[in-house]
Amino acid sequence: MKKKKKNLQKVIPYMVLLIIAGAFLLPLLWLVFAAFNPEASQAFAVPKYMSVENFRVILTDAKNQRGFLNSLFISVVQTGIVLVCSLLAAYPLSRYELKTGQKITMGMLFLTSIPITAVMVPVYQMFIMMKLVDSIGGTIIFLSASGLPYGIWMMKNFLDGVSVDLEEAAWIDGASAVKSVVHVVLPLMLPGLFTVAMFTFVGSWGNFFVPLILLQSTEKIPAAVNIYRFFGERGQVIYGQLAAYSIVYMLPVFVLYFFSQNYMSKGFAMTGASKG
Amino acid sequence: MVGTRNQQKRKIWKTALFFSPSILLLGVFFIGPMIMTVFFSFTDISLTGSSAQAMKFVGFRNFIEIFKDPKLLTVLKNTMVFLVFSGIIGQQCLGFLLASLMRGKNRLVRKFVGFTVVAGWITPEVIAAFMFSSFFADAGTLNKIIGIFGASPVSWLFTFPMACVVIANIWKGSAYSMMMFQASLDNISDDIVEAARIDGAGGLQILLRITLPMIKSTMATTFVIVTLSTLGAFGLVFAMTGGGPAIMTTTLSIFMYQKAFIAYQIGYGMAIALFILAIGILLSLVYIRLIRANDGN
């Protein structure tokens, strides 16, 4: 009797966990099945026969190709800018013990948690005045700025973990600060750089609000806005194609996730807000 | 003495130099707009019409107009409901439940469950919106499931639109709380829990007397972050319901979007933005306080 109760106590948490996992998985499974189903509807169904027709239609459309390329370009360039700027900024924050440095670090943490939504209206106004509306470059710069506080904060924490001793040894050997960063710190910083890159890229890739406001021309919009326009503004939606589009659009970030799970949990552990 | 002062000076200069690209970007594109919000919310600036050219100060008119708007009360209520149910109750509690259930479980189960939850976090919000509007659609998965049990279909997105977006947002955002709680629970040593158990403490007592007090600070910080990100949430709700039907799912951020970019009343939109920003700044300050207090311990 008692043993039974104990067994039950052990099984229940597993059951609860699996039920939650199943509930989380269900919408995703719909997406996967619908993508390969030529007769997909809005309801979950196992396809009678599998086909890649939906993918073919989506991927051969010139507008969609353009959307994916725009997304890739925006996200890669933004990630590059955030990496360089945050590394440069985090270095003195971590290495020089200045009072202002601590204040700046706290300022960065403060900025990470300001919702981007709150600045979108003034940013649009500013972009009109600077004649930057509908410019991919302008959008990238704004996205970079919005990703910087979190980048700097994470980078500073990673740099704190890299021992100063090695660097000092390089200095004594006559290396300049820049040289010691490039040859000594940078290789040790690779996991940190990777984490910052991954967070920035995922945030940028999925971003919808910023390009929705700042970009307008069909040939400039990234995949997020393209898919919204493509399916949101048409009456009759072909669900199989919608699902196929979604899968293609999600794939890069999921692949990135599988390669960097450990780095990701490190980024989360750093506290600070990661804004999607 | 002189040497150290020179060194100090050099350090400050170097810091400034290294920081300049970031300062430029943040100053112009982040802090600048924050200040602009304050300035423009007192003007009648708009994108079309005469006031587009000649903008003038109108004092508190935008704010008075907002408070007179009959929609405001509903919008605030929607925002609160969305915040409390999807952010605080949903993501926080589910995140904690998941993290505590996963503690000490089989590695494979942990990985699998973890993946299903994190999948929501990495899924772009537009996709999440499509997935859930299909899930709740009249001919969608949910109606098919309840159909199996003999229930007749429900128009979820029209009858319970808020519940639909709340569930979608829980799906999208629970990963953050889960990961934070996991990290924090990992810090509680098994010995303490075991010792309490030997002393005769039950599951509930362990939860209330040991676990919760030890993860108090994590709860506080995730609470602030979840609140801020839910307050700023836009794409998910917008792509799912567009704020409708009528204004049943219009939250503050969607209200702001409609005023500024659909009705072209930028000044009015700015005033709403300022409100969101003010809450954001307030909570961020609380957040920093919490982080600093934790570091002190």
UniProtKB/TrEMBL annotation, chain A:
Q: Which family does it belong to?
A: Belongs to the binding-protein-dependent transport system permease family.
* Alphabetized InterPro entries for the sequence: BP-dep_ABC_trans_perm, MetI-like, MetI-like_sf
Its principal location? membrane
Cell location = Cell membrane
Q: Where is the ABC transmembrane type-1 domain?
A: 68-260
Report any Pfam family annotated for this entry. BPD_transp_1
Stated membrane topology is:
Multi-pass membrane protein
- Under what name is this protein listed? Carbohydrate ABC transporter permease
Q: Does the keyword Iron-sulfur apply?
A: no
**What transmembrane ranges does the database entry give?**
67-92, 104-124, 136-153, 184-205, 238-259
Q: Which UniProt keywords apply?
A: Cell membrane, Membrane, Transmembrane, Transmembrane helix, Transport
Q: Which CDD domains match?
A: TM_PBP2 (cd06261)
Q: Which SUPFAM superfamilies match?
A: MetI-like
* Top-level lineage group: Bacteria
TrEMBL record, chain B:
Domain ABC transmembrane type-1 span(s) in chain numbering: 77-287
Domain of life, source organism: Bacteria
Q: Which UniProt keywords apply?
A: Cell membrane, Membrane, Transmembrane, Transmembrane helix, Transport
Q: What is this protein called?
A: Sugar ABC transporter permease
TM stretches of this protein: 12-40, 80-100, 112-133, 145-171, 219-241, 261-288
Can you say where in the cell this protein is located? Answer: Cell membrane
Q: Does the keyword Cell membrane apply?
A: yes
Membership in a protein family = Belongs to the binding-protein-dependent transport system permease family.
Which one Pfam family would you cite for this protein? BPD_transp_1
Q: InterPro entries in the record, alphabetically?
A: MetI-like, MetI-like_sf
Write down the membrane topology.
Multi-pass membrane protein
At the highest ranks, the source species' classification is: Bacteria, Bacillati, Bacillota, Clostridia, Lachnospirales
